[in-house]
Specification:
mainly alpha
Length: 152
């Protein structure tokens, strides 16, 4: 018996095929526990602020008075924001004798809301949440700059 320990060509070819195949098997990663929605608090705050703005615009609606197109347009935009944020919108509830919010007050509310939403958008973890909050903030900024909103 000879103790011939040579490597055969067949062994080299088999090894050349086996090594890459072994390297291609899927890696197992430790399962991470599901993260709570990191941006949920920001979305909830945005929805609350949007509902407050909607109520301020609703206070401008006087039953029986001719409709104010600027208020109606702003209210419709805020209703869309509420729906985009996952809330539900009730019909306008303007009541006779309701104190009408001054135009300046509406502009101030819009401006403050835009500032808060911009801050929330820049700190959001999800790109979708950041985009939504930034979009709503931009809309609020436009309404804040539009000094005619609520005039009438």
């Amino acid at each position: 018996m000879t103790d011939d320990h040579r490597v055969t060509r067949r062994a080299v070819i088999l090894g050349a095929v086996a090594v890459p195949l072994a390297a291609c098997r899927p890696k197992r990663r430790a399962a991470r526990p599901p993260q709570p929605a990191a941006d949920q608090a920001a979305l909830d705050a945005a929805l609350t602020a949007e509902l407050a703005l909607l109520a301020a615009y609703d206070a401008r609606i006087i039953p029986g008075a001719p409709p104010d197109d600027a208020v109606a347009a702003a209210r419709a935009a805020h209703a869309d924001h509420v729906r985009a944020l996952g809330g539900q919108v009730a019909s306008p509830t303007g009541a006779a004798g309701t104190a009408r919010a001054a135009t300046r007050d509406l502009s101030r509310l819009e401006s403050r809301s835009a500032k808060d939403l911009r801050r929330a958008a820049t700190s959001a973890r999800s790109g979708d949440v950041a985009a939504l909050l930034a979009s709503v903030a931009a809309s609020h900024e436009v309404f804040a700059q539009f000094r005619q909103v609520g005039a009438g």
